[in-house]
Amino acid sequence: LINGDLKHEFGTINQQEERSVLELLRFLQERGVSVIVVRGNHDVLLEPILKRAGFASFEEYLEGDFFFCHGHTLPRSQAFKGAKTVIIGHEHPALALSDGLRQETGKCFLFASHGRKSLIVLPSFSRATEGTDVLRQEFLSPMLTPAVLRKAEVFLVIDEAVGSAGTLVQIEKALKRF
Q: What is the reported pTM?
């Protein structure tokens, strides 16, 4: 499942981007992978490319108790209401740490609660996009309110390992000590 922003550019689609999207979809198709594309805010004009390649896209997707949407708008569907876990993209969270001389940034997952639902925010899976620093930038998703973020747990991705770095509040407190 590709949870939005399959393409990078807004509004237009250049030949290179179209070629890259088609190559990825064909690569997956040739290996028997069933591809589900959930549209993101960057995916304007994606539909004709997907149709040519024999794929469909969705505004949202429900798989069991898991509800996938890009996260740039608030979901209001019946599927969302019945889901236990919501998985969004859109924000591309990353954790930037600095000692004053050097800064290291790592992609991360955010795990939080949104009402009675679990909420997972996915990092960017592209090497071209580093992400949004979870400590210094405001989030755009209407799902990521300050109340939700206050208790969000950060899972840092280092190479192929993923581990908890604590909650955003814990990380902020620890950094203030230095």
A: 0.89
